[in-house]
Structures are given as C-alpha cells and as structure tokens.
C-alpha cells in the first residue's frame, strides 16, 4: 500500500484488497511501489501487552511515494521512542524518511486473538485508528481488532 499526498489531494494506492472506511477512487490504484517502500513491513508491533503505537508515513523522496505503517513497542516509554526507532530502522534506505500521522495505544492479547487500538499521543496527536486497524488486519486477519477514540 502506498499513501501519496500532493497538492492537498489524499491518494491511497493499494496493491491488495483492504477495507477502508472512506471511498476510494479507482483511478488512484497502482500496483507499482517504490523498491525501498516494498521492503518496509506495514505492521511491526510487539507480540503481547499494552504499549504505545504510532501511525507513520514512510516517504520515498526519490519517487514521492508514501506508505502508512503501524509501529508499537513495549520498550517505548514515549511515542517519540517509537518514532525514533522507526527512523533508525529505515535509515539504511537513504531515500526514505519517516513522518508522523499520530499515535495512541495498542492492547494486544494473542491468547484470545484480540487487538484494541485507542487513545492518543500528547506529542504527536491522535492517529487515525481506523486506518491503523485496517493495516493491522493485513497481518492479523484472524484477530478481533477494534478501535475507539476514548482513553489515553
């Protein structure tokens, strides 16, 4: 999936079926993706627990393509820790940069196959939890994944 923003137009390029809560114009679809963006996983979260998460845009400066990703780690005391860790992960690709789309919390319980997305980041604002859930469903299709804007 590639998210592209140019001249105040929000475009979402999807290379496989993805359920979104907004209509998508079919002319936005593309099967091509930046070589480097295709190597970045859409979802990287810890396997269990309650932790801070961020919804991030990975931007390929060479192609001007974007890819939204979800990152969340128990080791992150702050949302900025998640942001900095992701920047470190993608810095091996010189044309990629990380941009914040906000944050929140994830409650991940693999024993009952459940993920709950909620809350906000005081420093980065609230992420679009519905988009985060759509991305999480690509990695955890057999999970019950829900979201709410309530809570911190």
Descriptive notes:
This protein is globular. A hairpin with a 2-residue loop joins strand 1 and strand 2 (9-13). With 152 residues, it is of the alpha/beta class. 15% of the residues lie in helices and 38% in strands. Residues 5-31 have low confidence and may be disordered. It has a 6-stranded mixed β-sheet with strand order 3-5-4-6-7-8. It has 2 helices and 8 strands. It has helices spanning 79-90, 129-139, and strands at 2-6, 9-13, 43-45, 49-60, 65-73, 96-109, 114-118, 144-147.
Overall mean confidence score, pLDDT: 84
Number of helices: 2
Give the termini distance in whole angstroms. Answer: 29 Å
Q: Write the element-wise H/E pattern from the N-terminal end onward.
A: EEEEEHEEHE
The computed structural class is alpha/beta
Please provide the count of β strands: 8
Strand order of the largest sheet: 3-5-4-6-7-8
Described by strand count, sense and barrel closure, the largest sheet is: 6 strands, mixed
Low-confidence stretches: 5-31
Looking at the structure, what is the overall shape? globular
- Percent helix, as a range, is 10-25%
- Work out the strand percent: 35-45%
Radius of gyration: 15 Å
Features:
152 residues; alpha/beta; 8 strands; Janus_sf
SSE layout and pairing:
Blueprint (H helix, E strand, L loop, with lengths): L1 E5 L2 E5 L29 E3 L3 E12 L4 E9 L5 H12 L5 E14 L4 E5 L10 H11 L4 E4 L5
Q: What's the quick description here?
A:
This protein has helices spanning about 80-90, 130-140; strands at about 1-5, 10-15, 45, 50-60, 65-75, 95-110, 115-120, 145. It is an alpha/beta fold and about 150 residues long. Belongs to the janus family.
């Amino acid at each position: 999936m590639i998210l592209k923003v140019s001249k105040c137009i929000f475009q979402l390029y999807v290379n496989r079926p993805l359920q979104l809560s907004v209509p998508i114009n079919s002319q936005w679809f593309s099967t091509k993706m930046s070589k480097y963006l295709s190597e970045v996983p859409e979802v990287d979260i810890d396997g269990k627990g309650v932790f801070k998460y961020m919804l991030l845009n990975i931007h390929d400066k060479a192609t001007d393509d974007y890819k939204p990703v979800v990152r969340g780690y128990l080791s992150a005391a702050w949302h900025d820790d998640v942001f900095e860790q992701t920047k470190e992960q993608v810095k091996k690709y010189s044309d990629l940069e990380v941009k914040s789309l906000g944050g929140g919390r994830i409650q991940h319980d693999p024993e009952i196959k459940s993920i709950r997305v909620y809350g906000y980041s005081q420093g980065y604002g609230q992420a679009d939890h519905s988009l985060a859930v759509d991305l999480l469903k690509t990695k955890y299709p057999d999970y019950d994944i829900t979201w709410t804007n309530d809570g911190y």
